[in-house]
Amino acid sequence: MAVSFICFLIFRFTGDPVLMLAGKYATQQEREQVRIAYGLDRPFYVQYASFLGNALQGNFGKSYISQTDALDTILERFPATFELALSAILISFVIGVSLGVVVSLRPGGWLSRVIMAGSLGGISVPTFLMGILWVMIFAVWLEWLPPFGRGETVQVGRWRTGLLTLDGITHIIMPALTLCGYQLAVLLRLTRAGMREVLGEEFIKTAWAKGLSPFKVIVKHALRNVLIPVITIAGLSFGELIAFSIVTESIFQWPGMGSLLLVSIFENDHPVIVTYIMLAAVIILGINILVDLAYGWLNPRIQYD
């Protein structure tokens, strides 16, 4: 409710959608007719109360542009964004945690120094520049990957996926690499810091003294105690990637929710924008709840009453 109210309040001062709905050359009378037809002549609090009442019934209004249900318009783009964000966070987590463990075991080695220097690049390089670099390398110079689009997709129930076709997989590689750069570097450095602290603890020394295998000491005892903050950051990052992958989707012309939001902002399509932000808030909240539940699995001492 608070998110929707803030959105309504902001959009009241960010342009008049009637100018877009009525057309550039509409007369003042025609604009007033459009304003009345869409209820934009009513006071702000009346408009908000009407929207909130309809939203509680699952009706978020119609897009000013397509004249289709705003929620359906967004959910139609959701599979593309979800698959892109999921691919990016999986790459970030697997590679970031693995490299973080490697760096923590040999902090002074040349390989560790190279990896840490590379992580600075992942944090420092802007997303748009990283995307352009991937396109230049893999699409223009090497001609290995397609430069834009989602590729071939298949319908599975109500879900349209590109992960079941080779063309769809090749199309998602570069956007996923672009989107995962910052998160990978953060998870790497977070894992490294946690592992270096845990490896000096007494219970780790005891595990080594008992003659346990390196895998059990590093993964089962050390890494498991480090994963709680890593999972927390990964969960927050996943929600952000789903909700705000606008730059990456724009660079690669990915038909997801981010590109839809950008078009809606340019065209003052308020119903779509408000619905999008409310849905993003619900997604991020839901992921945070799942992350909290995962704490109990990672650390049995954490219990929820």
CATH topology of the largest domain: MetI-like fold
Low-confidence stretches: none
Order of helices and strands: HHHHHHHEEHHHHHH
Q: Mean pLDDT score, rounded?
A: 85
Radius of gyration (CA) equals 24 Å
Tell me what you see in this structure.
The protein has about 300 residues and is an all-alpha fold. It folds into two domains: about 1-55, no CATH class; about 75-300, MetI-like (MetI-like fold). The chain has helices at about 1-10, 15-20, 30-35, 45-55, 70-105, 110-125, 125-140, 165-200, 200-210, 215-245, 245-250, 255-265, 270-300; strands spanning about 155, 160. Strands 1-2 form a two-stranded antiparallel sheet. Helix 5 crosses helix 8 (about 165-200), helix 9 crosses helix 10 (about 215-245) and helix 10 runs antiparallel to helix 13. The radius of gyration is 24 Å and the shape is elongated. The two termini are about 30 Å apart.
